[in-house]
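Field reference: sequence -> structure
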Amino acid sequence: MVKLHQYLALFFYCKAQYEKVDDIFRLISIRGTPPLAHELEITMNNYRLYFLTKVGGHIEHYEAIEAKGDGAAIEAAKLYRGRYPLELWQRDRRVEAFPAQMGLVPAPYGH
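Structure field:
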C-alpha cells in the first residue's frame, strides 16, 4: 500500500517538472492513482522527519519521507507542522528545522 508521503513526494516532483497543473492531473488520471516513483524512473532520496518534545527536544517519533530532493522533502514535511517542533534529516545531515506553531493541532500519528 502506498503511503501518503509517497503520493506527496511524487506530487511535488511533478509540480517541479511540469509547468501546467493539467499535466499533473493527466499523470494521475491514467489509472486513477498517481504513478509510483519507479514507474517514472525517479530516483528518490530517503529522509526522516523527527517529531520532538516541547521540553528538552527529545525525539518522540519519526515519519519516513521519500523525495526527489531537499526542496520536495521540505514541502512534504511542512504538511506535518503543528504544535511540536520538527527536524528533517537525510542520514546524518539536518536539512531543515521547523519550530512549533502555537494554536495548531498536531498532525496525527501514522500518516
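Note: Residues 4-17 form the longest helix (14 residues).
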